[in-house]
Write a structure and sequence with these properties.
It is globular and about 75 Å long. It contains one helix and 15 strands. Helices cover about 10% and strands about 35% of the residues. It has one domain: Jelly Rolls. The protein has about 230 residues and is mainly beta. A hairpin with a 5-residue loop joins β3 and β4. The protein binds magnesium ion (MG).
Length: about 230
C-alpha cells in the first residue's frame, strides 16, 4: 500500500514536471512582430549599408537605388561584419526585369549562411537549370520542394530558419544542422539537413559556431532590400 502511494506520488510529480522539462517554464518575451520584429537586427533597410563590408574587408560598393534597394554591380560579394550562428533571416530580392542569359547565367546571386551554405538566388521563372541549382535550392545539395518563383523584376521573399551543423565532442564527425526555407511564403525546404559540406567555392569551409552572412556577386544585377535577422 505504502509503495503504491509512493508510486502514485512519483507519477504525479512526473506529470507535473514534464511540461517544465520541455521548456514550458519560461515566459516568452513580448516583442512587436513588426513588419520587422522588434528583436531583429536590421541588416539593410534602404540607405544604411554599414552592417556590411566587401570581400576585401573594405566599404561596400554595390549600387544604392532610390527604391530602397541595393544592386549587385560586379564589385564583389558582400558580407556582414557581424557573424551569426542559429538564426531566422528575412530577405527580399529581385532578379533583373530585362531577361538576359539562361540557366545559371540568369539573375544569379545567393545567400550564404556562415559564408558556407548557399541558398540559391536565381531567375527560375521559365528558366531551366539543374534542380539543385534553381532558386531556393540549398545549392548542390537539395532542390526546392516546388518552384514558387515570381516573374523577373518582381520582388520575392525568402524567410529562412538555419541551425548550424556542430562538430561532435570528439571532433570526428558532425551533428547536422538544418535549413527551413519559405519562398514567397511557400515552404520549399522542410527542415533539410546541413551536414557541414560547404557550397562549392564558398569563402569559408569547415564547421564553426558562427560565420558571416554573404550575398553573392555572380555578375548579374540582382537587387536586395529589407534584410533582417533574428538570433535563435
Ligand atoms: Mg548563386
Amino acid at each position: 500500500m505504502k509503495s503504491m502511494k509512493l508510486g502514485s506520488l512519483a507519477l504525479i510529480l512526473l506529470l507535473v514536471s514534464a511540461p517544465f522539462a520541455l521548456g514550458a517554464d519560461k515566459e516568452p518575451a513580448i516583442i512587436n512582430p513588426g513588419p520587422t520584429p522588434s528583436d531583429a537586427i536590421v541588416l539593410f533597410s534602404g540607405k544604411d549599408i554599414s552592417q556590411w563590408k566587401n570581400d576585401k574587408g573594405a566599404d561596400v560598393q554595390w549600387k544604392l537605388l532610390p527604391d530602397g534597394s541595393m544592386e549587385v554591380n560586379g564589385s564583389g560579394s558582400i558580407q556582414t561584419k557581424e557573424e551569426f550562428g542559429d538564426c531566422q533571416l528575412h530577405i527580399e530580392w529581385a532578379t533583373p526585369s530585362e531577361v538576359k542569359g539562361d540557366s545559371q547565367g540568369r539573375g544569379n546571386s545567393g545567400v550564404y549562411f556562415q559564408g558556407r551554405y548557399e541558398i540559391q538566388v536565381l531567375d527560375s521563372y521559365n528558366n531551366k537549370t539543374y534542380f539543385i541549382g534553381q532558386a531556393g535550392s540549398f545549392y548542390n545539395h537539395f532542390a526546392p520542394l516546388v518552384n514558387a518563383s515570381r516573374k523577373p523584376g518582381e520582388w520575392q521573399t525568402y524567410d529562412i530558419i538555419f541551425h548550424t551543423p556542430k562538430a561532435t565532442a570528439d571532433g570526428k564527425s558532425v551533428t547536422p544542422g538544418s535549413f527551413t526555407v519559405l519562398h514567397n511564403g511557400v515552404l520549399i525546404q522542410d527542415h533539410i539537413e546541413v551536414k557541414g559540406d560547404a557550397t562549392t567555392a564558398a569563402k569559408f569551409s569547415g564547421v564553426a559556431p558562427k560565420g558571416p552572412l554573404i550575398l553573392q556577386d555572380h555578375g548579374n544585377p540582382v537587387r536586395y532590400r529589407n534584410i533582417w535577422i533574428r538570433k535563435l
